[in-house]
Design goal:
It contains 33 helices and no strands. The protein is mainly alpha-helical. Helix 32 runs antiparallel to helix 33. The radius of gyration is 27 Å and the shape is flat.
Length: about 450
């Protein structure tokens, strides 16, 4: 029973806790002897971790491909280092999820993708249709699939040949063809005159849309088309400025969120009474520092979340938001790539488990905080912390004090969990007494 397992060291120097071994198994810095040991582990979580490890040797992946556990095989099938011969064998696996993982693998051979394009399962065919390595013949077959998701994914695949896209432009799939990043500008120009607003919206959203077409669309009768123009990264600054003054609020907010929006307009909308206007400013990657500071104190939690999620948010503002009263904001801070170590150290003690999980897998998390997190009561937190390369491997696998210092705390936590299970009738009186005795006996 997982709740009465203690963190301790085994004879081979690895933690007894299978969750920690599963986290360690995903680390690219593992010594070869530990990789080999975990590949033979009794617990499937450890074997699955090794199978998903980007540094797992192809020969070992070949061995793990025959594992009886479907999750292990799925991890092997997802690994870009998986040998082509093994990937091809997985096309006939009994597990749908293994075949899906095979179809998503960027290293999947074209012949295998062609075979999977005829799979009985729609999820598998959808995965093939989304694979950028999908061969033209398979895409042409999938475009005529009865499943709407499958033929839409196939039509939007950037590997679609121009001739195939031209054919689609004459069909009911012309909207999807217009979203394809490989759609030729000349074809987009033809589709720009379509009577269907959804088709024009798709054209207006395409980064390859010719500038002349984008300019014409700025005056389109559909607010959806004008909003798409404002969001298009190819939209010129002068046009963004014009759309920021559109009579429709949705178009204005789309323009304000554009990186090309002038700072003067950003400042104006940062004071807008609508939270959607302020959110548009907060999510703009070109938002100036002083507006980040202002919006970090916004009364609306959604606006503060947008500030904390903005890739350009300054570390000092992220540090302030790490103390936010709302867990959703702190979660955005913990998941931000530029979150400063000091903020992560603070968030490592957060009361929200989801926040701690993001902290535990953040590459900038201080090792001192990770040493605390590998002793957390939440299994995911321990697994992510153990798999974080910012924590020296030796602190997990070689220093007994890291684990022994927390044994009493874990025993107390596990006793509480046992009591809850007993109170709710999950454990009988006999099972409770026996489990409690085993736990206390291990902690002597």
């Amino acid at each position: 029973m997982e709740i009465i397992e203690r963190i301790a060291l085994r004879d081979d120097g690895l933690p007894v806790d299978p969750i920690l071994r599963g986290g360690i198994a995903r680390r690219p810095d593992l010594p070869r002897q530990i990789v080999l040991r975990l590949a033979e582990d009794d617990d499937a979580r450890a074997r699955s971790g090794i199978a998903s490890n980007p540094c797992c040797p192809p020969s070992l992946l070949e061995c793990l491909a025959g594992d009886s556990d479907g999750e292990v095989r799925r991890a092997v099938a997802s690994n870009p280092s998986c040998p082509s011969a093994v990937i091809s064998c997985f096309a006939g696996d009994s597990s749908v999820w293994v075949r899906c993982a095979t179809a998503r693998n960027p290293s999947c051979p074209p012949s295998t993708l062609e075979r999977l394009a005829h799979d009985d399962n729609g999820e598998v065919r959808s995965a093939v249709a989304r694979n950028s390595s999908c061969p033209p013949a398979a895409l042409e077959h999938l475009i005529h699939d009865d499943d709407a998701w499958v033929h839409d994914y196939a039509a939007s695949n950037p590997s679609c040949a121009p001739s195939l896209l031209e054919s689609l432009a004459q069909s009911t799939l012309r909207r999807v063809a217009a979203t394809n990043s490989s759609c030729p500008p000349s074809l987009l120009e033809c589709l720009a005159g379509d009577s269907d607003g959804e088709v024009r919206r798709a054209v207006a959203s395409n980064p390859s849309c010719p500038s002349a077409v984008i300019s014409c669309f700025a005056g389109d009768s559909s607010v959806w088309v004008r909003s798409a123009v404002a969001r298009n990264p190819s939209c010129p600054p002068s046009l963004v400025e014009r759309l920021a003054l559109d009579f429709d609020s949705m178009v204005r907010y789309a323009a304000v969120a554009s990186p090309s929006c002038p700072s003067s307009l950003l400042e104006r909308f940062a004071h807008d009474e609508s939270r959607w206007a302020r959110s548009a400013v907060a999510s703009n990657p070109s938002c100036p520092f002083f507006l980040f500071e202002r919006l970090a104190d916004d009364s609306d939690v959604g606006v503060r979340c947008d500030v904390a999620s903005n890739p350009s948010c300054p570390p000092v503002v992220l540090g302030r938001l790490a103390c936010d009263i709302d867990a959703a904001v702190r979660l955005c801070v913990a998941s931000h790539p530029s979150c400063p170590p000091s903020a992560l150290e603070l968030l490592a003690n957060d009361v929200d488990e989801d926040v701690c999980r993001y902290v535990a897998r953040h590459p900038s998390c201080p090792s001192a905080a990770l040493e605390v997190l590998i002793k957390d009561a939440d299994g995911y937190v321990r697994m992510y912390a153990a798999g974080n390369q910012a924590l020296p491997l030796g602190r997990i696998c070689r220093s007994e004090d890291v684990f022994s210092s927390s044994e009493k705390d874990f025993a107390a936590t596990d006793l509480n969990k046992l009591s809850e299970l007993h109170d709710h009738g999950v454990l009988t009186e006999e099972e409770f007494v026996a489990a409690k005795g085993r736990l206390l006996g291990r902690n002597d």
